Amino acid sequence: MSPVLHAQGFLPPQDTSTVTARSSSQQPLLIGNTVPESLAVTTEDGKQRTLLSYKAATEVLVIAFISARCQAGQSSWPILRRLTENYADWHVAFLAIEASSGGDGASLAGLFKRERLPWPTVVDPRHAARDLLKISGTPEVLILDEFGTLRCRGPVASAQGALE
User: Fold this and answer.
1) Is the pLDDT of residue 142 over 50?
2) What per-residue string of b and e applies to 138-164 under the rule 16 or more CB within 10 Å gives b?
3) Contact status, residue 138 vs residue 66, Cβ threshold 8 Å
4) CA atoms within 13 Å, Cβ hemisphere of 69
5) Phi first, then psi: what are they for 62, rounded to 5°?
6) How far apart are CA 144 and CA 59, in angstroms?
7) CB of 161 within 8 A of CB of 3?
8) Do 5 and 60 touch, CB atoms closer than 8 A?
9) Which residues make Cβ contacts (< 8 Å) with residue 4, sequence separation at least 6?
10) Over pLDDT 70: what percentage of the chain?
11) pLDDT higher than threshold 90 for residue 52
12) Residue range 143-161: average pLDDT?
């Protein structure tokens, strides 16, 4: 059973009445729109993988855009750890994206291992995901429902309430 998503503490749903299909190089994706199947990130070993491939068909996907060099991001590790523990038995998948320009998935994976966060870690070297999802800074959490639709976004501390 998937958790019910609501936007408490997150940006309210945006008007999508005039939104049409578009490429990632044009306008950013709005809450209520589906993430394109082709949106790809780079794994630790340098391979391309689609963002939606990190979740099963019935899972919600929690994406944390973070920077291994950001002190604010590092202070969010306890909250991310609690999310992982609290939703271990739910249909929730987790993914961390290293959002800084010079960052790499390997450094983030090492940091997550030390902090006991078992999230897959990837990078967004061409900033396609960051630009399409309209990420303004780190850390920021986005939640995609089981259909790949962007439902919520906001600070790490608000993610717990959005999954309840």
Assistant:
1) yes
2) bbbbbbbbeebebbbbbebebbbebbe
3) yes
4) 7
5) -100, 120
6) 9
7) no
8) yes
9) 164
10) 77
11) yes
12) 87
Match 């271990």 to its residue by tokens.
88
**Rounded to the nearest 5°, which phi and psi values hold at 106?**
-65, -40
C-alpha neighbours within 13 Å on the C-beta side of residue 137: 7
**Which pLDDT band, with edges at 50, 70 and 90, does 106 fall under?**
low
Exposure string for 16-36, b = 16+ CB within 10 A, e = fewer: eeeeeeeebeeeebbbebebb
Q: Based on DSSP, count helices (H) and strands (E) in the chain, helices before strands.
A: 5, 7
Higher-pLDDT residue of 93 and 117 is 93
DSSP string, 84-126: HHHTTTSSEEEEEEE-STT--HHHHHHHHHHTT----EEE-TT
Q: Is 53 within 8 Å of 41 (Cβ atoms)?
A: no
* 157 or 106, greater pLDDT: 157
Check: CB of residue 79 under 8 Å from CB of residue 160.
Answer: yes
Spatial separation of the C-alpha atoms in residues 94 and 91, rounded to whole Å: 10
Task: Give the pLDDT mean for 83-87.
Answer: 87
Compute the mean pLDDT over every residue in the chain, rounded to the nearest whole number. 77
